[in-house]
Known about the structure:
By secondary structure, the chain is mainly alpha-helical. It has a domain at 66-149. The chain contains 5 helices and 2 strands; from the N terminus they run ββααααα. Strands 1-2 form a two-stranded antiparallel ribbon. A hairpin with a 2-residue loop joins β1 and β2. α2 crosses α5. It is globular, with a radius of gyration of 17 Å.
Amino acid sequence: MAEPSEGLNMRFTQNGNLSYQLTEGSVALSRFMQRVFNGYVQAVNIDMHRKGTLFESKYKSIVIDKEEYLLQLVRYIHINPVLAGLCTNPEDWEYSNCKEWLGLRKGILFDSEFFGTYFQTNEQYREFINSYKEEKLTQKEIKRFWIDW
């Protein structure tokens, strides 16, 4: 896996009031993202004639030191809009680079070298995310019935 100071292309999706960004970088990235979010909140507050925060909590970053965890995180980011009920399929969410991972769009937020390390085809990645989708949706249904029971 690359050292934290080296670059790794970003995978991004925006979901409701949560913003997911997966990238690799230094502490300076954390400060930069805090400024981006603060500027965004200030602009929205001015535009909407409101005060206060828009996000549930402060910007937070974590170190990902295992590629397997990174792979699971990318899958989670891509499937989360489906689990949140915002779309039916991960490629339907326009604020994600899932379409690049599935070969449906050419974009700049896609690391083909990283992708090729784990998947030979876009269809393999589709199966990878769909298996997780089905597992999580089944868990959600079981939980709903358990609570109703």
